[in-house]
Amino acid sequence: MEKVTVAVETPYDVLIDHDLLKHAAAHLEDLIQGKKVLIVTDENVASFGYLGNLQEAIVGITSGVDTYVLPAGEAQKSAENYVALQGHLATLNYSRSDVIIALGGGVIGDLVGFTAATYLRGIDYIQIPTTLLSAIDSSVGGKTAIDLPQGKNLVGAFYQPRRVLCDLDTFQTLGETIFEDGCAELIKYGMILDGDLLGQLMDRESPLNALSGDLGAIVKRCVEIKRDVVLEDEHDLGLRQMLNFGHTIGHAVEQASHYKVSHGRGVATGMILTQIMAEKEGLTELFLTERFNKLLNQYHLLNQLNLVKDYDFEDLTAAMTNDKKRRGGEITEIFPDSFGKCRLETMPFDQYAGYLAAIIADLKADKLPIVLDGDEVA
Amino acid sequence: MEKVTVAVETPYDVLIDHDLLKHAAAHLEDLIQGKKVLIVTDENVASFGYLGNLQEAIVGITSGVDTYVLPAGEAQKSAENYVALQGHLATLNYSRSDVIIALGGGVIGDLVGFTAATYLRGIDYIQIPTTLLSAIDSSVGGKTAIDLPQGKNLVGAFYQPRRVLCDLDTFQTLGETIFEDGCAELIKYGMILDGDLLGQLMDRESPLNALSGDLGAIVKRCVEIKRDVVLEDEHDLGLRQMLNFGHTIGHAVEQASHYKVSHGRGVATGMILTQIMAEKEGLTELFLTERFNKLLNQYHLLNQLNLVKDYDFEDLTAAMTNDKKRRGGEITEIFPDSFGKCRLETMPFDQYAGYLAAIIADLKADKLPIVLDGDEVA
After folding, report:
1. Cross-chain Cβ contact B95/A121 below 8 Å
2. Looking at chain A, which terminus has fewer C-beta neighbours within 10 angstroms, N or C?
């Protein structure tokens, strides 16, 4: 088993291994013994049997397990669901010493994390990410949030889980598309902070998949990178913004697509467009578009670029206006600096919008210096 | 001007004086200059002209002032209003560097504080309490919350304001009943932590009122007491529970009355019933009911006790079941220990409910060892 300890105010462990769900009682005993536990998940995850497996594994050591199953999808990260979940906890008389488990991807993790952060001003919660993406991204770092109709993640809190179980077996069952979304974030970690990881991903014989023997080690490396960034900047004031590489454009694309484009593919789109922008406008001396393009294509992460052609430019920038990274007429973007290293650069939003307009115009005219490859993504 | 500095992670000042609203620009310049500011208040406060005065005082140094006016009353501390206020901020494109001002009593302070704590995962907010109660209680300590249909303050966060302005002039205008509610909390501070303050309140020639020359000094003393308790126990794990003296029964009475009984009068009811319980059950050696009764009567804080006679006992204890102070079948109550000193005592909830049943039975049979005096409170 791989283990990463996150030394925040109340330190917690991220456990990475196969078969963790089956042995959840042993891994969670100190946190849930004799307590009421609410497992929140979605219909997809429940249909794979993970909810039943987890419930069966832990019910004996708790004072009772309740379950709460939502439909799948980003739309569930709503204020309505947040309020309903709070009401459910209150109706079941959950006290400050009881526990919530988030079993699912980033949507479940964010919604449940924010609920736990604010129910009775904070109760314990445990993350069990069932996707590669949520394992390496949203389950570490304590960012919890819900969406508003006006934009993603507009309401939330910084709140750390008490433990994270990354059961690698669960990453195998949600399908290749979902796994590839996680690879977008893997690649991001390499780009911003780890040239070795980036090189390893670019040079491997065959693309990483859920059965690859080195998956546990790679997940551990990403969790460590994220942990180190978060510890240095828990409240997202500096270094942590680096993790947003590709996210400014990525979030905008997700929102403009009404979330038909997934988070991972949104970020992949954002990363390649940011790279092209940086090369085109002289914002980097690292000419990486071609290799980067090839790497992203291996995981079929760029095919939704054709969708972006149909979006109004105003829709894209309107989404950015509400983005938290925009402060008082300026925007801070993350640009590639050298291999495995990015930098923050703040510029007037209008200047940035001009650069973006040029890239989008090239995209619409099929003049971007990239090739698309792989299946269409619905 | 009186000033109390609260040295939390980001220290802030509580300013106490007359005429603060009029000079708000000078007192808030460092926090709001060049920023967008949303003032949230209620119709009562707005009708006294405070909203207009504040807006006029600060608009010149901000980049724009927006206002948001709610109806008055506890019912406004709802999840619906919380979500609507978040949506309003997003629609107005408030960024992380903008500011919200809570202008009003505890309801506005709690709702706005929780909104500020969670909009974009936290933006600055300023408290301008317009009642004695909110000045000495909810505006210091960082407890923010909203209510659910299942109970009061069930959802919230610990989040500190950047500054608190207590304009004593505003305490004069909201009526004697509201001022007296604040006196219930003054008396509570004396009971739990300051025998001098308690003696001073018991021995004064005429009751404190909004025009009393020593009001500023008394407010300062209460803010200091609360500050000291909060600093020692920011996350409400021990000492801070002391501040809940009278609140277990108080909250239950408020809820059972559907909030016809105000917070201050609920707490006064809770304090006297807890004192009588302590004497009756041998939980204290401090026999203070008579003097305590007299003091509370001076501020007409006990007349709603007649209302409590009509409540079902089950309604009262049902409300307590959801109270955050109840943990795993036990309840921690605060009992008077000596003059100006209370202690925490944890006991099985059933035992506590038995004591409470005895007191309520006495109340219904008009056998409580107290006298009621003053006007009926609707």
Report:
1. no
2. C
Beta strand B341-348 with B330-338: parallel, antiparallel or unpaired?
A: antiparallel
If you average pLDDT over residues B40-44, what whole number do you get? 96
- Helix H or strand E encompassing B93: none
Question: At A303, which helix (H) or strand (E)?
Answer: none
pLDDT in tens, A216-229: 999 999 999 999 99
Q: B90 in contact with A at a CB cutoff of 8 Å?
A: yes
Rounded Cα–Cα distance for residues A104 and A222 (Å): 19
Give the separation between CA A155 and CA A106, rounded to whole angstroms: 15
Domain B2-171 grouped into CATH 3.40.390.30: no
Are the C-beta atoms of residues A247 and A270 closer than 8 Å to each other?
yes
| Domain residue extents for chain B | 2-171, 176-364
**Distances from the Cα of B26 to the Cαs of A151, A174, B12, B21, B250, in angstroms?**
35, 58, 16, 10, 39
> Touching check for B10 and chain A: CB below 8 Å?
no
Binary contact (A150, B322; C-beta < 8 A): no
Q: Which CATH number, 3.40.30.10, 3.30.70.1050, 3.40.50.1970, 3.75.10.10, labels domain A2-172?
A: 3.40.50.1970
pLDDT in tens, A37-62: 999 999 999 999 999 999 999 999 99
Annotation: CATH topology of A176-218+230-364: Dehydroquinate synthase-like, alpha domain (1.20.1090)
pLDDT tens track for A325-341 = 556 688 999 999 999 99
Classify B86 as helix, strand or coil. Answer: helix
Residue B317 clears pLDDT 90, i.e. is over it: no
Helix, strand, coil percent content, chain B, rounded in steps of 5: 50, 20, 30
pLDDT at B322 over 70: no
Tokens 């077996």 belong to residue: A169
The two structure tokens encoding residue A1: 């088993």
Contact (CB<8Å) A95/B122: no
pLDDT digits (tens, 9 = 90+) for B237-262: 778 889 999 999 998 898 888 888 98
A326 touches chain B (CB under 8 A): yes
What is the predicted ipTM? 0.85
Residue A132 exposed, middle or buried by CB count within 10 Å (0-12, 13-18, 19+): buried
- Tokens at A97, concatenated: 């010493």
